[in-house]
Design brief:
It is a single chain. The chain has 312 residues and is an alpha/beta fold. The protein is built from 13 helices and eight strands. The protein has helices at residues 58-66, 84-93, 103-150, 172-178, 180-183, 192-204, 206-221, 231-248, 251-262, 264-268, 270-273, 278-293, 300-311; strands spanning 2-5, 8-11, 16-17, 25-33, 36-43, 49-53, 77-80, 98-101. The strands form two sheets. The chain has a six-stranded mixed beta sheet with strand order 3-6-5-4-7-8, sandwiched between helices. It is extended and about 90 Å long. The two termini are 19 Å apart.
Amino acid sequence: IEVKTKNGKTNIHVPIFKDENFGSSMAIDEKQIGEDMYTIMSNRETTKIAMICKSMRSDEIRQVIESHPNVKFKVKSISRDFSRMYAKVGREVFPQAKQVIDKFHVIFNLNSSLQDFRVFYRQKELTKKREAYNEFKKQEDIRKKEFELEGKKFTKRKFRYKTQKLSNGDTHLELLQRSRGLLFKFRSQWTEKQSKRAIVLFKEFPKLQTAYNLSIQFRNIMDRKNIGGHYLYLDKLLNQWYEDVDDSQISEMLNFKSLIEQNQDGVMNYFIKGETNAIAETNNSKIQKFIAANLGVRDKDFFFFRLGLYFA
């Protein structure tokens, strides 16, 4: 499809576009096919692909969709990730549609922030080890010069980093490395071993416990039991969480809080019907298996022809 750009006109590859596959509930996501990135719109109710477009620019995607004017007012809801580009597509192309940010992407970013904080402590421990090694090298250089002045044979010593063994037998580095899995879980999901490790972890790193509690607090807000809840009640829960994050002064959690604040409407829209972007992720997975089954994308025209038959 020919579209206008700042430098004139260009042709956008749109191997699949089916008006009949557009419906009231749509999902939008990106997918790499071969070496190219494509935007894919899927119908959340029928699971069928409605559009595959080789573009990651909102103005180009807008023109591609507007070349099929019948679909514009069909869409009442669009699920997406945190992409500002897809947010812009939703605003400009489907003005009647509410935008819902996918819960999976919300929780993924939350868990990433929590793990970043754990890694921050681990890097501090690794820095201590590096500094101890650098000091050891300096002392070895001094010792070597002293031996040379005295005409003695110098024998290099092996670096040994002495670390404190904690009550569960882990060092601080081992504790932080082995605690990765338990931070993803609710306390009720911990094994007996993880529970014991968590006690030691939070004793040694109390700020990490604060960050973990904040992540659980937010995940409880995003729980399915709150779908259909009153907006004011959910807004109160979220604002209380904002205050708690501000009080913690943990940079990683403050960064995640900022992401939620900037996209609050899309996040809160999840609680209306519990809509997610699961179908987009499922279709991406199916396409990936399709690519693997076909040993790659050698003949793109034939590949998209078959893709359309199976999924559109």
